[in-house]
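Ticket reopened. Same input as before:
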Amino acid sequence: MTEQIIEPKALPAESHAAETHAHHGHSPEEIRKEIRVYLWVFGGLTALTALTVWACYGLKMPVHKAIAIALAIATAKGFLVAGFFMHLLSEKKLIYSILLLTVFFFAVVIWGPLHHWADMIGR
Amino acid sequence: MEAHAEAHHDFEIPYTVHARPDTGLYNAKLGIWLFLASEVMLFGALFSSYILLRTSAPTWPRGWEFLNVPLATANTFILIASSVTVVLAWANLRMGNLKWGRIFIALTIACALLFLVNKGFEYHHEFVEHRLPSTNNFMALYFTMTGLHGLHVLGGVIVFLYMLFPGAKMWGTDRARYTNRIEVAGLYWHFVDLVWIFLFPSLYLM
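Engineering reply: fixed in the latest deploy. New output:
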């Protein structure tokens, strides 16, 4: 029989942070530092959004260039959101394993139509 | 009395605050990541359909020729801002500041509602112009993908409204668990933002 661990109620915020967010800062000063990072990321996301709209809509780029630029910028923005807001830059191994499996199946789903397209071009 | 206390403990949900030794995560966090993995596949299937239909079509309309790009750009900024407000809510709760935590949750809800109102204006305009899901494959994908995304935004609004009002009572009894709930809801919300980051260029800019 494994012993059931009963969590204490109403932990103070600091001890909670230390227990559950070992990979994040837990002192108010460290959390304030995190907040500054979030605001920088917000600035980056805003600038990249403006850039993609200017390049693809403002300059009315040809379709192939627009696709390349829009997807490159969207990937960069996705990295910022996932890495900093979702804390994937400092997550547990189990979450990386789940995401690795997800990326594999996602790639399979996307590979299907791309393979079909490549096949059509080859004909 | 002791038996009653033991019975009460039998119904305790384990690892709502502390990390499970084998996973290194509290259960809700593992749960939300598994859920998000399934969501990636859901939207992945739609993006796969988009690629298939687009690459198979002899011609494909470019969204910016008729969709409202300025409004969609504004919606992108709004959703990014809401991602920031939700992490700020979580950060404030971790510092023990419920007041500012709730203010940032309320701002997240306001951003989400503004996003939905703008989307409503866009849909109205499309209907007035007789561009319906049945018009062509592009419009079918546009309504399916943005509609499903909009439902996710609405789902987020419901969760955050619960956290803001009745759910916030937990702060008085178990503030660590409440803070974790905001983190988990935030992870969902960032995913909704992430999907829009790819939907926006796919439908409006390419």
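Residues 98-128 of chain B form the longest helix (31 residues). The CA atoms of residues 68 and 78 of chain B lie 15 Å apart. Please confirm and we'll close it.
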